[in-house]
Amino acid sequence: MASFLGNIFGRKSMSVIGVDIGSSAIKVVQLARRRGRAILETYGELALGPYAGGEIGQATNLSPEKISECLADLIREAKVTTNLAALSISYASSLITMIEMPAVPERELASMIPLEARKYIPVALSEVALDWSIIPKAPSAGTGRNFGDHESAPLPSEKLDVLLVAIHQDTIARYQTIVEKAKLAASFFEIEIFSAVRSVLDQDAACHMVIDLGAASTKVYVVERGVVRASHVINRGSQDITLALSAGLSISLREAETMKHDLGSVFAINKMNAEEVITLALDYIFSEANRVLIDYQKRKNTNISLVTLVGGGARLEGITEIAAKHLQSDVVIGNPFGKTQAPAFLEDVLKKTGPEFAVAIGIALRRLQEFD
Ligand SMILES: Nc1ncnc2c1ncn2[C@@H]1O[C@H](COP(=O)(O)OP(=O)(O)OP(=O)(O)O)[C@@H](O)[C@H]1O
Ligand SMILES: [Mg+2]
């Protein structure tokens, strides 16, 4: 029956969850919108290692059925009260590339892009879902016209930078199975890059780098004026520190993982060995990230003013100092919960655990925008 009565006291506040299925852990964050602010209602994470016969902190490769079981457990444990969800898709499951296109109206571009995309995508186009967006030109170089606007007539000599994204249909089917089995109402899947960036950066004019230190890999993104311009994956992550500690100090993976979480006390006893092992493992990651940074600065004749670290690996004690030794830029640790409102007594714990939840928070923030 149609309702003709207005809701005088405003819409009931909607709660949503952002879900990040990482290689080592699933994270969920539940947010609600009240008086224009994103309120943190609950959050939680579940390590996947033990479900795959491994340890906490280790990367896994579980079936969608097993993942949905874990997700259902986490939803129950974290006392999530909504099924309105959105999920992030891992960077590894997507293909992202920047292409140059002639400056033609958007409708024409839409028919040209699949043809161009064939050059970059190693499988048949029918096997992937394609998406793309035009990268806005820098204000100084721009003409002030918007090529997405069909009214405008771009000059034929101008070029457009287009961000092209392809996701394999099998990956989408896998996420759909997870969503169905976990009984969620997911309105979109978003590649984790965009979620992580949304939760830690503001849309300013500066050029930023975001480094996501996951368990198995490290993702590096360059963001200019709020738009992702470049991305790169380094096939080493925080679990490599655990492996190196375990091998270097002849201790079990479990002991090494515990040690990694409490380095302050470890250094007090055994400073030399542990520090050396950790630094070695991170040297590779940050020198690779610095290579991406220098290369981008040179290519675009710009300056990356700040590097923000996220991901569980960014919780390592002393990581900012190690990163700063390699990166020719200022380094900070991301505080994604800073974009939400939470009880004051949680402030310290949210700051500490925040980096791990960057992707889940970014996804939940976008899901909330659907009710604006
Ligand atoms: N307090 C801590 N100190 C040091 N390392 C930590 C801490 N907490 C978590 N980690 C490490 O962070 C890693 C997990 O990070 P995260 O949850 O971001 O990874 P993921 O999203 O599962 O992986 P990926 O992004 O590669 O798919 C693990 O290797 C874990 O050991
Ligand atoms: Mg991750």
Task: Explain what you see.
It is globular and about 65 Å long. The strands form 3 sheets. It has a 5-stranded mixed beta sheet. The protein has a 5-stranded mixed beta sheet with strand order 11-10-9-12-13, with helices on both faces. A 3-stranded antiparallel beta sheet has the order 5-7-6. 36% of the residues lie in helices and 27% in strands. The protein has 2 domains: 15-93 and 169-369, Nucleotidyltransferase, domain 5, CATH 3.30.420; 94-168, Dna Ligase, domain 1. Helix 1 crosses helix 3 (169-181), helix 4 crosses helix 10 and helix 5 (238-248) packs across helix 6. It has helices spanning 64-77, 106-117, 169-181, 192-200, 238-248, 253-261, 263-300, 319-326, 347-353, 358-369, and strands at residues 15-21, 25-34, 37-47, 84-89, 94-102, 128-135, 159-168, 185-191, 207-213, 218-224, 227-234, 306-310, 330-333. The protein is α/β, with parallel strands linked by helices. It contains 10 helices and 13 strands. The structure holds adenosine-5'-triphosphate (ATP) and magnesium ion. The site of adenosine-5'-triphosphate has 23 residues, from helix 5 and helix 6. Residues 22, 214, 311, 359 line the site of magnesium ion.
Entry keywords:
372 residues, alpha/beta, Nucleotidyltransferase, domain 5, Dna Ligase, domain 1, 5-stranded mixed sheet, 10 helices, 13 strands, binds adenosine-5'-triphosphate
